[in-house]
Amino acid sequence: MAETSHLDTFARDHLPPREQWPELLFDLPELQLPDRLNCAAELLDRWVEQGQGERLCLQGAGGLRWSYADLQARANQIAHVLVDEFGVVPGNRVLLRGANTPQLAACWFAVQKVGAIAVATMPMLRAMELSQVIDKAEVSHALCDARLAEELTLAQAQSPALKTVAHFFSDAADGLEARAAGKPTRFATLDTAADDCALIAFTSGTTGQPKGTMHFHRDVIAITRCWPPHCLRPTRDDVFIGSPPLAFTFGLGGLLLFPMSVGASAVLLEKAGPDALLPAIAHYRASVCFTAPTAYRVMAAQASAHDLSSLRKCVSAGEALPAATRQLWKDSTGIELIDGIGATELLHIFISHDESYARPGATGKPIPGYKACVMDDEGQVLPPGQVGKLAVKGPTGCRYLADERQRDYVKNGWNLTGDAYLLDAEGYFVYQARTDDMIVSGGYNIAGPEVESALLLHPVVAECAVIGVGDAERGQIVKAFVVLHPGHAADEGQVRVLQDFVKATIAPYKYPRAIEFRASLPRTESGKLQRFRLRSA
Predict the structure, then answer these.
(1) Is 418 helix (H, G, I), strand (E, B) or coil?
(2) Which domains does the chain carry?
(3) What are the φ/ψ torsions at residue 253 (nearest 5 degrees)?
(4) Helices (H), 285-412
(5) What's the whole-model pTM score?
(6) What would the pLDDT profile of 22-39 be if each residue is shown by its tens digit?
(7) Which of 27, 154, 251, 361 is a plausible cystine mate for 244, CB 3.0–4.6 Å?
């Protein structure tokens, strides 16, 4: 590893041992990156330095339009606030909390410029979930949308590591905008090592305990040089739009890193459900769309009511793409979906295709820079046609923050994603199922045990079990089997009470959309819950 620029060495000190890292591949010429690299300099500063600062970069609500120079100036001012007023030093972790807006993007780049580590969090997370992230990453500073302050304030009370919180979209005298207004619009981006940690992206494990995935400045640039040029093929005139939050690496790549890597622009929507996304595509004349299969299925039925003539590329990821959804979208728009599978642990998409090689039901082939195979339980590569564990390696890979689950994800240099696949006779990877208890619903990863823990906090619940069940619209939905304490009604009113309780306890998207009341749950003689019997019921 190159000499670090981090004065706070927490990230390097908590990397997994090198023997537990996956094998990293840098076979492509474009992956031969220098030892000193800051992703903000590569993705933002260089356009201004090349005289292209006036190119449109980001658009937002209320007709907001920022050029590359505008974004750089705002990121530079926030960087001065972080360093001059808050004392942030290279290597500190800075939590980011907000919906998709240009201001959140400016905060992300400010964190990179000062050499700190961005820890972006989903807007819907509750205090309990935020506290887990803060404590695990030892987050010391936070930049938070004032409209989302309540849960972070509650989390801060439980997490003494978090010392400083600044709110943006605030009229307060100590709000981020007021602090930044008088700061210089120039800031010398820190000369970081390419393998200094740039971000820690959190993903829920099947136990509901979050795992922090550590990614370097080199990784951020590497993903812009693999999938986009070979599968998406964007141009500098493209206008990107989509639904995934920037706190998801799917959204960070698709709505910020990828467009900026080619000098294109992006529209950042605070609310991007199907009903909002379609008119936004028409209004902004967007040409590249990123969202989950669930959204494409809903939008297909409404597409004819909107002018989508500007749209030329549509990317589906976050969950398996059903062949029927692919066909619905093509019938409605004439556009072939580009499917892909990625993972927070590998930062972005590693198996995909372009439009000319799309096949119904198949995810695609490993993208340039990556290798993949299907393995059995003993780690042996399986021949085509047999279902096994998906194994991947490339220029990015899993490095969990101080987590024993590193041993489970990386085996013999391969990243084991937790997905069951088969390889067909023509070399296409075809998704079968998840190999763990993770529920993938509407593009969101949901850990069943975490939902169980939330339900068990309600006084009427004696026992519960949560599984994922198939759903035509969302891929899967969360279903809970609940045993009530005596004297409580097992009716629709109780269903709504428990659903609302879960929504108020953990992120609302994790709530059980189906609840079935049972007198008891299937268990072994030793008392272990038999989830397979619930799945087969």
Answers:
(1) strand
(2) 438-535 (3.30.300.30)
(3) -70, -55
(4) 293-300, 323-333, 406-409
(5) 0.89
(6) 999 999 999 999 999 999
(7) 251
